[in-house]
Amino acid sequence: MSGKVESNKKNKSNKAWVHEHINDSYVQRARAGGLRSRAAFKLSEIDDKDHLLRQGMTVVDLGSAPGSWSQVAFKRVAPGGRVIALDLLPMDALHGVHFIQGDFREDEILKCLVDALDGRRVDLVLSDMAPNMSGIAAVDQVRVMLLAELTLEFCRDHLKPGGALLVKVFQGDGFMELRKAMQEMFDKLHLRKPAASRGRSAEIYLLAQGKRSFSEG
After folding, report:
1. At what angle do helices 25-32 and 40-50 cross, to 10 degrees?
2. How many CB atoms are located within 10 Å of the residue 151 CB?
3. How many CA atoms, within 13 angstroms, populate the side-chain half-sphere of residue 39?
């Protein structure tokens, strides 16, 4: 009997999510504007406020699928800009975006990303990466923070001095340690929660600007 009750609860939850998704104004606007997902408005809102994207920049978009952040980024760095996107999942081709499919944690995939840069230093790293959620909060938090830490390591090696990082995180274990590490690497650090981020979502974005040179520590 308990199994049937749990199944009914799950079905009701799924139906509620579908109803909310269909009636979501950001979903409707994304479809009307030819954007691949409502997440495009998260980046657009942050960029409108903080002016991260400029013509001619080199941008790396981690966790890019289905491609909405890459769409926004390329539109704003063109002409002359370059967007390199990476995701474990496949992503349909986008004009002006170089896509690499693979696991960011694997050395071979990371090398492909570095090769695609062709010697160019990165102006901005975007990371909307999230692991496959297990539903176990403590486990999921560790996975999210690990991805954020790996993103920060990538910035240490490939983001040019003065560059910026926008990364999705969840507040919880490891959050304050990550903030401290970012504050040591960058001049400025801000929290951003764009309106397009659903209110019930625990996600927030850390925006770090002004990467320090190695001589500055």
Report:
1. 90
2. 26
3. 21
Residue 50 sits in the same domain as residue 25: no
Residue 193 is a catalytic residue: no
CB 152 within 8 A of CB 175: no
Question: Based on the domain organization, do 42 and 29 belong to the same domain?
Answer: no
Q: Regarding beta strands 58-62 and 122-127, do their DSSP bridges make them parallel or antiparallel, or are they unpaired?
A: parallel
User: CA 120 to CA 139: how far, in whole Å?
Assistant: 36
Take residue 165 and report the two structure tokens written for it. 């990082």
Let me know whether 12 and 119 are in one domain: no
Q: How many domains, the chain? A: 2
51 and 11 housed in the same domain: no
Q: Catalytic pick from 160, 168, 180, 211?
A: 168
Phi-psi region of 49 (alpha: psi -120 to 50; beta: other; left: phi over 0): alpha
Q: What is the pLDDT of residue 24?
A: 67
Query: Do 169 and 65 belong together in one domain?
Result: yes
For the chain of 217 residues, list the mean pLDDT of each consecutive stretch of 10: 45 44 66 73 94 97 94 95 95 95 90 91 92 69 87 94 94 88 96 80 90 68
Domain housing 14 = 1-34
pTM: 0.83
CATH number for the domain including 151?
3.40.50.150
